[in-house]
Design brief:
By secondary structure, the chain is of the alpha/beta class. The protein folds into three domains: 141 residues; 80 residues, no CATH class; 63 residues, no CATH class. The chain contains twelve helices and seven strands. It has a five-stranded mixed sheet with strand order 1-2-3-4-7, with helices on both faces. Strands 5-6 form a two-stranded antiparallel sheet. The two termini are 46 Å apart.
Length: 288
Amino acid sequence: MVGSKHEAMHRLFQSHPEVFGRAFTALGLPFPNPTAVSLLPNDLTEIDPIERRVDTLLRLDTDEGPFLLLVEAQGKEDPKKPAAWAYYLSHVHAKYKLPPILLVVCQGAATAEWATGPLRIGPRQWASLVLRPLVLGPHNVPAVTDLCTAVDDIPLATLSAITHANDSDIGAILKTLATALQSIDEDDALIFAELTELGLGKGPAAKTWRQLMTVDLSFFRSETSQRLRAEGKAQGLAGAILKSLNARGIDVRPETQERIIGCTDPEVLDTWLDRSFTVDSADDLFGV
């Protein structure tokens, strides 16, 4: 099953594949920037009832010719992965007749070292297949803590935050990204904020990110921020109900007031507000 970190990588490289070229240019690898990008089906299942899906499959057209980019997010070393990756590469090469590249994105240095390979398939004496994935991780993605750099390249700053989730300086990376997001269109900022939250998973870095984003809820649509906005709406509705009853001269007993203020469901409060304009007593708000 594709998890949240996989989904973050999937969406980041779909929406901003140019981050691939910039990341590897910084490492001295001569990949040209794409001039066009096409999302290809990621279902590589044959007639055989074995389901095989790569996280993301892109066709990148460049001035030097097209190639395929397979993107996988890898959380830990997995001895089953080399066989799956070999299948992905050979399958798309045969299907699309284009040279494929496997890109593996890792958060841990040990996982990145393992994924870099070379990963050999075959007996010890003679490897029939040798995999050499390109790997992005904390060992080669820069830790973006400079605000100007982050503003100039939001996708790379987002990738930096995700791949450095377990680093000691992740706090500075996240603060820089959070500040940089305020410099772009709000809809775009929301997308990158969500991608970052997904990519960070459930560790301490994710908690730090949620705290940063709730400072300005307009930049964040996470579960936490939605809850906080709902609480704010509930408080406003409760106040409106009490004002309506007071304006009509209807007494509200302390326990009734506590029930109204203690309700956190905006839909229920909205119903009570409608009733507050017609009921003869405060207790009639709650219906039968």
